[in-house]
Amino acid sequence: MNLQLVTIGVYGFSSENFFSALAAANVEVFCDIRLRRGMRGSTYAFANSQRLQQKLAELAIRYEHCKHLAPSLTTRKMQREADVALGEAKRQRKLLSSAFVESYEQECLASLNIQQFVELVGPETRIAALCCVEQEPAACHRSLLATHLAEALGIQVRHIKP
């Protein structure tokens, strides 16, 4: 398999740098693995679904919303509670809680059909991106998904950071 995965989070990027990073990585398919595809405030408005899809189309990058790969509201609540217990803001988080990891593995990764993912990105795709919001890959479910896919497919993952 010739597929390579990159991951990217929205936080920490300007609009220009975000899209430049995707273009520089030669991303062909952009997998949005967020449950909700809206961002609050003007700083990250470029990552709101419609604007994001429009800019990706201009760059000839195919957009796929992979809602089934997003953590459930219940799992997200577990992480919020862990963040509060640690006195840590979401944007400053460096690692996911063990409760979140376990829940995400059970609800998403255990039933993930790898072949369906490969078909979704397309057999001709060389580079696909997994995108969510957190700046640190280890603080986001995209790193769990990327590791799972890399192990199953025997491929490499590269994390794009600001």
Number of separate strands: 5
Number of domains: 1
The secondary-structure class comes to: alpha/beta
Give the topology string: H per helix, E per strand: EHEHEHHHEHE
The termini sit apart by 28 Å
Q: Average pLDDT across residues? A: 94
Helix content: 40-55%
Question: Please, could you describe this protein's structure?
Answer:
The chain is α/β, with parallel strands linked by helices and 162 residues long. The chain has one domain. Helices cover 41% and strands 15% of the residues. The protein has 6 helices and 5 strands. The model has no long low-confidence stretch (mean pLDDT 94).
Topology, element by element:
Layout lengths: L3 E6 L5 H10 L4 E4 L16 H10 L3 E4 L7 H14 L11 H12 L4 H8 L5 E6 L8 H13 L3 E4 L2
Parallel strand pairs: 1-4, 1-5, 2-3, 2-4
Helix pairs in contact: 3-4, 4-6
